[in-house]
């Protein structure tokens, strides 16, 4: 049995940035409003507590892993001035072996408001693929990563050093945006380099990614978001990834802040990385009350290749998650969060059950994406 605790600290001093980020996550916590100054600092600290059966399945570098585990201590800086904006952060973490390490997670500059509605971004960034990959740990709906992120994008998702171009067009009922990036895949070090090398070698050294997003509001209260995603390993890689995602959201207050809200999300991945394609699906739903309580459910089924006795075998993972969260404003800059989550995970005929408690304290506005 394992015992773990989660404490999330976010500190941010703010900057004058674009408040509408069309390729941002649909998650309510991730989409905090941005402020109106020029520079703001951010910090997030994460620990976790709970129980898990022996053999509990963990795949993402920041999933709950140990009795007391530091998932991440994140410090960063955001800025916006005229046509330029940027973000950089360093993440300190505790590995599965209990050792501390740190890495620069993102460091990019954006050139925005260009002619033809173009935005350029260069540096190190989380690639825009699916609904979770470009969202930091403190913005997740659940305490652990989606199975599709782990098995199709990598142990810590897909991050690259390179460039990105985005075109977007607003219209009366919403927005359409398409973003394409090319760069070198970033390898992560968490104290078990052999596993990470195997995780990334399918993407080779460089990757091309594209995400197109159509947001269409039937009215202010009924909102739709449809995403189409593509990733391709370049320079000797063997991976081609296609993915689609759809989210429907109802908000009692429409486009205004606050009020009850309900959303449902579906996501499908297909990865061509070997003799036969691998497929993964995700279905999720979340209801949020105006008093700060929310309940979220998630079902996932992901096919992937698993090494067993020196041989790579095709297997699948089925996962159910239920999370109850409470977010409470302390003042206009601070809010706290508590989350209780239960997972049941099936892998190669074995079931694993786990329960996690997440506590958090947040300061400031959102991050430049």
List the main descriptive attributes of the protein structure presented here:
17-stranded mixed beta sheet; Porin; 369 residues; mainly beta; 4% helix; 17 strands
Largest sheet: 17 strands, mixed
Could you please say which CATH topology applies here? Porin
CA-to-CA gap between the ends? Answer: 38 Å
Residue-averaged pLDDT, rounded?
Answer: 81
Number of domains: 1
Q: Enumerate the spans where pLDDT stays under 50 for 5 or more consecutive residues.
A: 1-31, 191-201
CATH superfamily: Porin
Structural class: mainly beta
Give the SSE string: EEEEEEHEEHEEEEEEEEE
What is the overall silhouette? globular
User: If helices are DSSP runs of H or I spanning 4 or more residues, what is the number of helices?
Assistant: 2
Give me the CATH architecture, please: Beta Barrel
**Helix share of residues?**
under 10%
- What is the CATH C-level name? Mainly Beta
Radius of gyration: 20 Å
């Amino acid at each position: 049995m394992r015992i773990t605790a989660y404490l999330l600290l976010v500190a941010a001093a703010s900057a004058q940035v674009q408040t509408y980020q069309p390729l941002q996550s649909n998650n309510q916590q991730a989409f905090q409003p941005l402020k109106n100054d020029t520079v703001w600092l951010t910090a997030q600290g994460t620990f976790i507590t709970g129980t898990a059966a022996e053999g509990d399945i963990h795949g993402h570098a920041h999933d709950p892993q140990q009795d007391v585990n530091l998932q991440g201590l994140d410090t960063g800086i955001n800025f916006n001035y005229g046509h330029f904006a940027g973000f950089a952060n360093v993440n300190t973490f505790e590995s599965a072996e209990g050792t501390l390490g740190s890495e620069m997670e993102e460091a990019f500059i954006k050139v925005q408001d260009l002619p033809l509605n173009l935005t350029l971004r260069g540096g190190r960034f989380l690639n825009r693929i699916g609904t979770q990959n470009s969202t930091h740990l403190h913005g997740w709906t659940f305490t652990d990563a989606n199975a599709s992120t782990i098995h199709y994008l990598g142990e810590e998702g897909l991050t690259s050093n390179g460039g990105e171009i985005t075109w977007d067009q607003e219209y009366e009922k919403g927005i359409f945006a398409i973003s394409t990036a090319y760069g070198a895949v970033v390898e992560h070090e968490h104290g078990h380099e052999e596993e990470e090398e195997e995780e990334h070698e399918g993407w080779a050294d460089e990757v091309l990614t594209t995400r197109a997003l159509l947001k269409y509001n039937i009215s202010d209260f009924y909102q739709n978001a449809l995403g189409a995603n593509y990733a391709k390993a370049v320079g000797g890689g063997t991976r081609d990834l296609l993915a689609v995602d759809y989210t429907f959201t109802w908000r009692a207050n429409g486009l205004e802040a606050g009020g009850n809200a309900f959303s449902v999300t579906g996501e499908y991945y297909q990865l061509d990385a070997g003799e036969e394609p691998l497929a993964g699906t995700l279905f999720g739903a979340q209801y949020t009350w105006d008093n700060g309580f929310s309940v979220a459910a998630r079902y996932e089924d992901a096919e992937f290749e698993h090494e067993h006795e020196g041989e790579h075998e095709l297997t699948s993972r089925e996962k159910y998650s239920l999370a109850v969260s409470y977010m409470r404003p302390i003042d206009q800059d601070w809010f706290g969060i508590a989350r209780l989550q239960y997972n049941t995970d099936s892998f190669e005929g074995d079931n694993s059950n786990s329960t996690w408690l997440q506590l958090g304290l947040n300061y400031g506005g959102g991050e430049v994406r």
